[in-house]
Amino acid sequence: MENSNDKAFFQELYRLTEENNVILKKMRRGQKLSQIVQFGYIFFFVILGAGSLYFIKPYMEQIFGMYGGGDSSIGGIQTLIDSYSSLQDLQ
Questions:
Q1: For 38-64, what is each residue's pLDDT tens digit?
Q2: DSSP labels for 14-73?
Q3: CA dist., res. 63 & res. 47, Å (int)
């Protein structure tokens, strides 16, 4: 009698173990898919940032060029003021 109970117990245990393995394999597959999607998500935004920099760079250079030009014109104004001051000193 005990032998048949043990056999039924082990068969049930085997069935539950197989079911557990199927569930664990599905979970692992889901984790792998999640990692791939996360990598793709990060890769997409890195490429998007680099691409944006590529297209924005000419505008940034133009803005920095205008700033540099403004800086030189301020220097020109300062030179003009210094020249005027030196003329005032001569009189």
A1: 999 999 999 998 888 888 888 888 877
A2: HHHHHHHHHHHHHHHHHHHHHHHHHHHHHHHHHHHHHHHHHHHHHHHHHHHHHHHHHHHH
A3: 24
Dihedral sign for Cα atoms in the order 37, 41, 42, 43: positive
Greatest CA separation for the chain: 130
Mean pLDDT, the chain, rounded, equals 83
pTM of the model: 0.51
Which tokens is 31 given? 């984790």
- The C-alpha atoms of residue 89 and residue 11 are separated, in whole angstroms, by 112
Q: Where are the domains of the chain?
A: 1-86
Q: How far, CA to CA in Å, does 47 sit from each of 29, 37, 41, 44, 52? A: 27, 15, 10, 5, 8
Task: Take residue 9 and report the two structure tokens written for it.
Answer: 């117990």
Q: Provide the token pair at 90.
A: 């001569």
